[in-house]
Amino acid sequence: MVRFKNRYVLCEVVSEDPRCRHCIEDRAVGLAVRDAIGRVHGDYGLACCSISFTVKYLNAYTGTVLLRCRKDSYRLLCSALPFVRQLESRNQRYPCLLNTLHVGGTIRTCQKFLIQYNRRQLLLLLQTCPNEEERRCIQKSLLSCSLTEEQSQSGDEEDDDGTE
């Protein structure tokens, strides 16, 4: 058997309309991207990208999309993403853009990048806070996403207490 290598493209849905993020579905994103590839690269580009193209992950709240395609055709996919201008879902058209954040060889590298990206965005929000209450809320969210080591240490202490 031959192993086919894939590339994973991590994108962000950018829209001025807040309803856009909550109403998008993976099928709508897939159709919009395929349509853009067909317009930009024609039948050849569409055929190359359609072989293993899928929407692997979609988070409607954060607007994060993870697309998978073959390694040979990921450049065709990335070059067509700026031409996605709208998403159609439930007979509604929402104007939006797909901003490419990262291209990785595995889903895990894209997840690691997304964690670092979100931390940087939270730090930028922390610097631009207008009042102290918002600053405390952001600091609390930053601490909650970075305390994995301390949580595992507290789990070890519970095991020690249970054995005594």
From TrEMBL:
It comes from the Eukaryota. The keyword tRNA-binding does not apply. The keyword rRNA processing applies. One of its GO terms (cellular component) is nucleolus. GO terms for biological process: rRNA processing; tRNA 5'-leader removal. It holds the Pfam family RNase_P_Rpp14. Keywords: Nucleus, rRNA processing, tRNA processing. It is found in: Nucleus, Nucleolus. Belongs to the eukaryotic/archaeal RNase P protein component 2 family. Component of ribonuclease P, a protein complex that generates mature tRNA molecules by cleaving their 5'-ends. Also a component of the MRP ribonuclease complex, which cleaves pre-rRNA sequences. This is Ribonuclease P/MRP protein subunit POP5. It comes from Thalassarche chlororhynchos.
